[in-house]
Design goal:
It is a single chain. The chain is an alpha/beta fold and 359 residues long. It folds into two domains: 185 residues, L-asparaginase, N-terminal domain (Rossmann fold, 3-Layer(aba) Sandwich), CATH 3.40.50.1170; 118 residues, Rossmann fold. It has nine helices and 16 strands. β6, α4 and β7 form a beta-alpha-beta unit. It is globular. Pfam families: Asparaginase, Asparaginase_C.
């Protein structure tokens, strides 16, 4: 028999009607009562907390990371399932993955419809998560997200639809596999850096890490305010391949000089951040000391910054560690030179060694 431990944390999968809306209130055993357990699997439940995942804190997430490690200290456990709200599932799953060095799978799942919904998706998702956690084929894949019959790597996977049953995907990479007919199929193995050791327990507030988005007319006022408020980490959500303005590049340089760890991602759904543009683009932001985060989007870029700050390494080593956690990095695709480009499609302003068509 495969022995799977389910760690219940709340979310829609544990939600019931409260008179004016839904909120998490059901414990793990109530959640599991709705699920068909795959043949050959025994289930144990750990009630960790019961909250809507939009209310999760770093303290909650670190408790989850430690609980996963404690559960897997038992060699008789085959795998772990974490039931979690979908709003911040991508952040918790990635944080667990960054600290997960055990070959046994940790499978995150949840639901888009409440527990007492007559057309709910909790039962199917739980069954597939248990199936995956119990499968030898899932060993060595790290933390996974299982939703609507699809298996995703924690890294890169984000919530892509507010309400649809098929709510998660990595917009920049194919899924890991799928479930069906009582088994799982694994189609690829994800990139995973060396796992981080467990962070020390918090002895005070968690490090402040803020997100700042670039947009038309944006200036670095909010970035500067974050630094003034005591931020130890920042994620700049740039446009395009990770671009902003010269003013942002100057503000990033000042923040880095003040000891703030700065990462750059993009508001574009898919594709890597890349050093293509100057004039406040990713070339200048990287030169100012920011770390480009590959294909990680805002929430997971922030999670990588958090994990770096909690790793206990000297400040001078943090950028290198963050680069390792956010890789692999994809260079810009080879593009034709102006001489090879038809005149009618050439940019009207000089390129900086790469096409301007993505700006």
């Amino acid at each position: 028999m495969a022995r799977v431990v389910v760690i219940s944390t709340g979310g829609t999968i544990a939600s019931r009607w409260q008179g004016s809306g839904f909120a998490a209130e059901a414990g793990g055993r109530d959640v599991m009562a709705a699920a068909p357990v795959p043949e050959g699997v025994t289930v144990e439940v750990v009630d960790l907390f019961t909250v809507n995942s939009s209310r999760l804190t770093t303290a909650h997430q670190l408790t989850l990371v430690r609980t996963v490690h404690e559960v897997l200290a038992d060699p008789g456990v085959t795998g772990v399932v974490v039931t979690h709200g979908t709003d911040t599932l991508e952040e918790s799953a990635f944080l667990v993955d960054l600290h997960h060095g055990d070959p046994r799978p940790v499978v995150f799942t949840g639901a888009q419809r409440p527990l007492d919904s007559p057309d709910g998706d909790a039962a199917g998702n739980l069954h597939d998560a248990l199936l995956t956690a119990a499968s030898p084929a899932a060993r060595g894949l790290g933390a996974l997200v299982v939703f609507d019959g699809r298996i995703h790597a924690a890294r890169g996977t984000v919530k892509t639809h507010t309400l649809a049953a098929d709510a998660f995907a990595d917009p920049s990479a194919p899924r890991i596999g799928h479930t069906g007919f009582g088994s799982i199929t694994v189609q690829r193995r994800p990139h995973r850096p060396q796992p981080l050791p467990l962070p020390a327990p918090l002895t005070g507030p968690a490090p402040r890490i803020d997100l700042v988005m670039h947009h038309c007319d944006a200036d670095p006022v909010l970035l500067d305010a974050s630094v003034a408020a005591g931020a130890r980490g920042l994620v700049l959500v740039g446009a395009g391949a990770g671009n902003a303005t010269p003013e942002f590049a100057g503000a990033v340089a000042a923040a880095v000089s003040a000891g703030v760890l700065v990462a750059v991602t993009t508001r574009v759904p898919a594709g890597p951040v890349a050093e293509i543009y100057t004039g406040g683009g990713a070339v200048d932001l990287a030169a100012a000391g920011a770390v480009l985060t590959g294909t990680l989007r805002a929430g997971q870029a922030r999670t990588a910054v958090l994990a770096t700050l909690l790793a206990g390494v000297p400040a001078a080593e943090r950028p290198a560690l963050l680069r390792g956690l956010t890789g692999p990095h994809h260079p810009p695709a080879a593009l034709p030179s102006p001489a090879q480009t038809p005149a009618q499609t050439r940019p009207r302003t000089p390129a900086t060694g790469a096409s301007l068509t993505a700006a």
